[in-house]
Amino acid sequence: MSDDLLQPSIGKMVSAPRKMPWRVQSQLWVAFFGGIAAVTTIAILNARRLGLDRRKQWLMAGAGAVAFGVLLALWLRQPPAPTFIDFARGSRELRLIGRVIAVVLFLLHALLQKPADAHYRVFAKGDYASLWGPGIAATFLIGSLQSLLIIGLAWWVRS
Prior knowledge:
It is a single chain. By secondary structure, the chain is mainly alpha-helical. 70% of the residues lie in helices and 0% in strands. The chain has six helices and no strands. Helix 1 packs antiparallel against helix 2. It is elongated and about 60 Å long. The N and C termini lie far apart (73 Å).
């Protein structure tokens, strides 16, 4: 007869991660400055480092796609402008809304990563990798591509 009371409640770590994960809280800065695509990319990469199952990774990707679609739909509702530059300039409110959507998306990603992150902290007792390099790269590269893609698609559909 097995006594469940004496069994560990958290469980054994399946294996130590090959690469150290990033702190989940640090992804907030990528969300704020980089946007939806950047924070989704970083969150999925971190989820792989933490050993999250594929279902949660796909859920993160799906949430990122939905958020991107919402932002694109808002851009498509913007009134037409005579030139591409005027169209991009008249979008301050939409850029702010995009940041808010990205931060809310970060909260969802953080919620999905939280159990695996706690598991890593308890069992691996290792330090976290620095997010400075990958975070800045994602912010500039992926964030810029996201902005160009949304503005370009909205301009193309509207004209």
